[in-house]
Write a structure and sequence with these properties.
single chain; about 160 residues; alpha+beta; Mannose-Binding Protein A, Chain A; four-stranded antiparallel β-sheet; three-stranded antiparallel β-sheet; 7 strands
Length: about 160
Protein backbone atom coordinates (compact mmCIF):
# COMPACT_ATOMS: atom_id res chain seq x y z
CA UNK A 1 0.00 0.00 0.00
CA UNK A 2 2.84 2.43 0.78
CA UNK A 3 4.44 1.77 -2.60
CA UNK A 4 1.23 2.72 -4.45
CA UNK A 5 0.95 5.96 -2.46
CA UNK A 6 4.54 6.98 -3.24
CA UNK A 7 4.02 6.26 -6.94
CA UNK A 8 0.78 8.23 -6.92
CA UNK A 9 2.45 11.24 -5.29
CA UNK A 10 5.39 10.99 -7.71
CA UNK A 11 2.99 10.93 -10.66
CA UNK A 12 1.16 14.00 -9.36
CA UNK A 13 4.45 15.88 -8.94
CA UNK A 14 5.57 14.87 -12.42
CA UNK A 15 2.25 16.02 -13.91
CA UNK A 16 2.51 19.30 -12.00
CA UNK A 17 6.08 19.79 -13.19
CA UNK A 18 5.25 19.05 -16.85
CA UNK A 19 2.17 21.29 -16.76
CA UNK A 20 4.27 24.14 -15.37
CA UNK A 21 6.93 23.67 -18.03
CA UNK A 22 4.30 23.67 -20.77
CA UNK A 23 2.76 26.90 -19.45
CA UNK A 24 6.17 28.57 -19.26
CA UNK A 25 6.94 27.44 -22.79
CA UNK A 26 3.64 28.81 -24.11
CA UNK A 27 4.18 32.12 -22.30
CA UNK A 28 7.67 32.46 -23.74
CA UNK A 29 6.32 31.87 -27.24
CA UNK A 30 3.60 34.49 -26.88
CA UNK A 31 6.11 37.07 -25.62
CA UNK A 32 8.48 36.29 -28.46
CA UNK A 33 5.69 36.69 -31.01
CA UNK A 34 4.65 40.15 -29.79
CA UNK A 35 5.48 42.69 -32.48
CA UNK A 36 7.63 45.70 -31.73
CA UNK A 37 7.69 49.19 -33.24
CA UNK A 38 9.49 49.17 -36.57
CA UNK A 39 8.93 45.45 -37.27
CA UNK A 40 7.13 44.14 -40.34
CA UNK A 41 3.89 42.59 -39.17
CA UNK A 42 0.40 42.03 -40.52
CA UNK A 43 1.06 43.49 -43.96
CA UNK A 44 2.78 46.66 -42.78
CA UNK A 45 5.10 48.20 -40.19
CA UNK A 46 4.21 48.40 -36.49
CA UNK A 47 4.18 52.01 -35.28
CA UNK A 48 2.30 51.74 -31.99
CA UNK A 49 2.01 49.03 -29.30
CA UNK A 50 -0.26 49.45 -26.28
CA UNK A 51 0.74 48.81 -22.67
CA UNK A 52 -0.20 45.12 -22.82
CA UNK A 53 2.13 44.57 -25.77
CA UNK A 54 -0.60 42.57 -27.48
CA UNK A 55 -2.45 45.26 -29.44
CA UNK A 56 -1.43 48.20 -31.54
CA UNK A 57 -1.34 49.83 -34.95
CA UNK A 58 0.29 48.93 -38.24
CA UNK A 59 0.98 51.41 -41.05
CA UNK A 60 0.89 50.38 -44.69
CA UNK A 61 4.38 50.15 -46.20
CA UNK A 62 3.61 52.96 -48.66
CA UNK A 63 1.14 55.78 -49.17
CA UNK A 64 -2.12 54.85 -50.86
CA UNK A 65 -1.87 55.37 -54.60
CA UNK A 66 -4.41 57.13 -56.75
CA UNK A 67 -5.62 60.70 -56.81
CA UNK A 68 -8.69 62.88 -56.69
CA UNK A 69 -9.89 64.63 -59.81
CA UNK A 70 -7.63 67.58 -60.61
CA UNK A 71 -4.93 66.46 -58.12
CA UNK A 72 -1.53 64.90 -58.78
CA UNK A 73 -0.83 61.18 -58.16
CA UNK A 74 -0.93 60.31 -54.45
CA UNK A 75 -2.92 63.42 -53.47
CA UNK A 76 -6.59 63.12 -52.57
CA UNK A 77 -9.36 65.18 -51.08
CA UNK A 78 -10.70 63.99 -47.72
CA UNK A 79 -13.69 62.14 -49.19
CA UNK A 80 -11.55 60.12 -51.60
CA UNK A 81 -8.95 59.57 -48.87
CA UNK A 82 -11.53 57.82 -46.66
CA UNK A 83 -12.49 55.50 -49.51
CA UNK A 84 -8.91 54.85 -50.67
CA UNK A 85 -7.66 54.01 -47.17
CA UNK A 86 -10.14 51.11 -47.02
CA UNK A 87 -8.13 49.31 -49.69
CA UNK A 88 -7.19 45.65 -49.76
CA UNK A 89 -3.42 45.74 -49.14
CA UNK A 90 -0.85 43.01 -48.52
CA UNK A 91 -3.59 40.40 -48.11
CA UNK A 92 -5.63 42.37 -45.55
CA UNK A 93 -8.94 44.16 -46.09
CA UNK A 94 -9.31 45.99 -42.77
CA UNK A 95 -7.19 49.08 -43.47
CA UNK A 96 -8.61 52.51 -42.60
CA UNK A 97 -7.76 56.21 -42.48
CA UNK A 98 -6.23 56.96 -39.05
CA UNK A 99 -7.82 59.46 -36.68
CA UNK A 100 -5.88 62.44 -35.29
CA UNK A 101 -4.38 60.57 -32.34
CA UNK A 102 -3.36 57.59 -34.45
CA UNK A 103 -1.78 59.89 -37.02
CA UNK A 104 0.14 61.59 -34.20
CA UNK A 105 1.56 58.21 -33.16
CA UNK A 106 2.54 57.59 -36.78
CA UNK A 107 4.31 60.96 -36.86
CA UNK A 108 6.17 60.19 -33.62
CA UNK A 109 7.39 56.84 -35.01
CA UNK A 110 7.77 57.84 -38.68
CA UNK A 111 11.46 56.95 -38.76
CA UNK A 112 10.67 53.40 -37.61
CA UNK A 113 8.06 53.05 -40.35
CA UNK A 114 10.09 54.72 -43.10
CA UNK A 115 8.96 55.79 -46.57
CA UNK A 116 6.87 58.68 -45.16
CA UNK A 117 6.99 61.98 -47.00
CA UNK A 118 7.48 65.42 -45.44
CA UNK A 119 4.02 66.58 -46.45
CA UNK A 120 0.42 66.71 -45.21
CA UNK A 121 -1.50 63.52 -44.36
CA UNK A 122 -5.25 63.25 -43.88
CA UNK A 123 -6.83 61.98 -40.67
CA UNK A 124 -10.37 60.64 -40.46
CA UNK A 125 -11.19 63.22 -37.75
CA UNK A 126 -13.48 66.06 -38.79
CA UNK A 127 -13.19 69.51 -37.23
CA UNK A 128 -16.59 70.58 -38.65
CA UNK A 129 -18.85 69.83 -41.63
CA UNK A 130 -16.46 71.26 -44.23
CA UNK A 131 -13.04 70.71 -42.57
CA UNK A 132 -11.01 67.74 -41.37
CA UNK A 133 -7.73 67.44 -39.50
CA UNK A 134 -4.51 67.05 -41.44
CA UNK A 135 -1.06 66.42 -40.02
CA UNK A 136 1.94 68.29 -41.34
CA UNK A 137 4.75 65.70 -41.26
CA UNK A 138 7.31 68.45 -41.88
CA UNK A 139 6.51 70.52 -38.78
CA UNK A 140 4.59 68.02 -36.64
CA UNK A 141 1.56 70.31 -36.39
CA UNK A 142 -2.08 69.38 -36.82
CA UNK A 143 -4.48 71.78 -38.46
CA UNK A 144 -8.00 71.83 -39.81
CA UNK A 145 -8.13 71.98 -43.59
CA UNK A 146 -10.86 72.08 -46.18
CA UNK A 147 -12.03 68.58 -47.11
CA UNK A 148 -11.65 69.62 -50.77
CA UNK A 149 -7.89 70.22 -50.35
CA UNK A 150 -5.40 67.57 -51.34
CA UNK A 151 -3.22 65.58 -48.95
CA UNK A 152 -1.52 62.19 -48.87
CA UNK A 153 -3.02 59.03 -47.36
CA UNK A 154 -1.33 56.37 -45.25
CA UNK A 155 -3.67 53.52 -44.38
CA UNK A 156 -3.42 51.81 -40.99
CA UNK A 157 -4.87 48.70 -39.34
CA UNK A 158 -5.05 47.30 -35.82
CA UNK A 159 -3.66 44.08 -34.40
Amino acid sequence: MKLITKRSISRHWMMFLFTGLILISLSARSFAAMPKIGESYGGGIVFYVDGTGQHGLIAAKADVTGHSEGKEEGVMNWYDANVAANAFLEGYGDWFLPNREQLNQLYLNRSAVGNILDTYYWSSSESNASNAWVYNFTSGKQLAGSKANGSCVRAVRTF
